[in-house]
Amino acid sequence: MFSNSIQRTGLFFHKESSGIKCLTQYFLNSRSTATLVGDKPKTMDDLNGPSFLTSLYWLFGKGYFPITHQMQIEHSKIYGPLWKSKYGPLVIVNVANADLIEQVLRQEGRYPIRTDMPHWRGYRQLRNHANGPLTGIGPEWQRIRSILNPRMLKPKHVSGYANAINGVARDFIEKVAKLRTVKGDVVLVQDVAGELYKFAFEGICSVVFETRMGCLNDVIPEETQKFITSVGEMFPDELVRNKMTEIEGRVERGQEVEGEYLTHLLIGEQMSLTELLGSVTEILLAGVDTTSNTISWALYHLAREPEIQQKLLEEINNVCPGDQVPCSDDISRMPLLKAVIRETLRLYPVVPGNARVIAEKEIVVGGHLFPKNTLFHLCHYAVSYDEKIFPDPFTFLPQRWIREKQKQIAQHPFGSVPFGFGIRACLGRRVAELEMYLLLSQLIKRFEVRPDPSGKTVKAITRTLMIPGNSIDLQFIDR
């Protein structure tokens, strides 16, 4: 049937009595040409993979349900870098190779879709809420994203949030000092990740809502606690409306309207109120766990690697001696600080597996032709532990990310992509990175971090996001 295929142009023809008819045209790059089996291209049907019952056995019989990130590695060993999994009528194509992930992401089209999210979008419609940057799709998503992007992704705007974030960081450091319990020579803070969640929530709210929420107070305000436990209800609405009232009052009094993110969105009048509420709610949802979990894991490893911690302290003090507090401009002169965060995100990607639905066209991945609307599961965790890309992958080695070291090891650009890729990449990436850099530098400057003297090991579990499986308890010793 496809004997007259012309692969170099990505066109397949067959002869009919009425002439030559073009059957399929799809995007091909230099590394993604469909492989023929006989006279047909390979398709999803040619992929190996576990049956529905086998998947259930792995999840519940073998106990991989809380550690599905580890199942990525095990299944890639059995089925190779490209396999399919069946969950009832749902078929997922798993991609566990950096080259293949690159092929998927470079063909995602104008309106990439993470996954269908029908229940979330249905709930939004039921409550008359608009979709935001996480749940939106198609041209409407692109319009919303183009409005949100500049103040979240342009460095000149993001650097303007440093003062607010540093204020939250100072309060968090003082809270750590109060939380310490002293037993002999042990100065312990329990559940560091839980405390950092409050920091991250306060930090992103200080940027998005331009106000402090009181998450780090000795007693958290009742309304703030409600907000923390159920983002997306009436309280974000109240905050936005309060800001609108403030802006209207300034205009009526002839005063200059000043502010950052929320003020910019409100005075721009490019989004409806429901669109704005939907967007800021999703920014909050996405912005908290990234920061809190990553800093928790970074501190966990730095406590166990005193030599790396000492080098980091020296770097920070060289750039910001004495009582000088790091600002956004200082971060560019702290390569080890950046490397610590990047290595932490390699070991513990916040989302261990991402999804893509290519809705606009057929695509070729790994020599297989996939139809439109194929659901791809990008196994970022498995790729992050690929020893061909990251030698000694289970070891915390921040130096692998420092430029001088990188010259010795050619790393794949899609080996670790914790914030995603392309136009659907994480909207809050730069704000999250700034939060992590500023807080971690201040913490290391103020405290020596030591491990829990009990020797407890903390393993990661996956509950959509990768989180600590048990409490991270650390010692914070005044320097």
Note the main attributes of this structure:
iron ion binding; alpha+beta; globular; heme binding; 4-stranded mixed sheet; Cytochrome p450; 16 strands; Cyt_P450_sf; 479 residues; 46% helix; disordered N terminus; 18 helices
Ordered list of secondary-structure elements with their pairings:
Blueprint (H helix, E strand, L loop, with lengths): L10 E6 L2 E7 L10 E2 L2 E4 L8 H10 L6 H12 L2 E6 L2 E6 L2 H8 L12 H9 L11 H16 L1 H4 L3 H18 L1 E3 L2 E4 L2 H17 L13 H8 L4 H19 L8 H8 L4 H32 L1 H14 L8 H4 L3 H13 L6 E5 L4 E3 L2 E3 L3 E5 L1 H5 L18 H4 L22 H18 E4 L9 E4 L1 E4 L5 E5 L1
Parallel strand pairs: 4-11, 6-12
Antiparallel strand pairs: 1-2, 3-4, 5-6, 7-8, 8-16, 9-12, 10-11, 13-16, 14-15
Protein name: Cytochrome P450
Keywords: Heme, Iron, Metal-binding, Monooxygenase, Oxidoreductase
Cofactor: heme
Task: Provide a brief overview of the structure.
This is Cytochrome P450. By secondary structure, this protein is α+β, with helices and mostly antiparallel strands.
Fold and architecture overview:
The protein has 479 residues and is α+β, with helices and mostly antiparallel strands. The chain has a domain at 129-351 and 385-478: Orthogonal Bundle (Cytochrome p450), CATH 1.10.630.10. It is built from 18 helices and 16 strands. The strands form five sheets. Strands 3-4-11-10 form a four-stranded mixed sheet. A hairpin with a 2-residue loop joins β10 (363-365) and β11 (368-370). α7 (162-179) runs antiparallel to α8 (192-208) and α8 (192-208) runs antiparallel to α12 (273-304). The protein is globular. The termini are far apart. Mean pLDDT is 85; it is low at 1-32.
